[in-house]
Amino acid sequence: MKQIDKIDFETKKQLYKYMNIKLTGLIGSEDDWLANLSNASALLWLLLDDINWAGFYLYRKDKLILGPFQGKPACVNIEISKGVCGTAAETRTTQLIKNVHDFPGHIACDSASNSEIVVPIIKDDQLIGVLDIDAPILNRFDQDDQAGLEKFVETLNKYMKWEDIL
Most CB within 10 Å of its CB: which of 14, 52, 109, 121? Predict the structure, then answer.
């Protein structure tokens, strides 16, 4: 269980607005991609309730490779089109999965995960990777989370120098 001081927000929209302000402060003046993605995953871990994994997979050599994250050790390589992450990468659309056990081909890196959201990271029509967040409860993520996390990825795209990792 995470023991942190949290700010109470009336809505998820307020939470994600705050999260994006914090993200901008963390990465807005830093050039290092590793530091920025590490801080981004830590920020998600700190501010989102009821999650058990938050991090990034980066697109390299025609597959997704584990990047900075918070949570238990994870799968290192994910093929494009495999699992929720691979599907998000292939379709370039956010995958909002209420029950991962109903998702054909779900890759269970942590058997405690029950729901998942994966947002593709695309810049200038090029796949960079995916933001992946897992939760131990069913139906953890909704449309407000999707909109907030898609905005989170937009903020990453605004400040990240992706060419340094490609």
Answer: 121
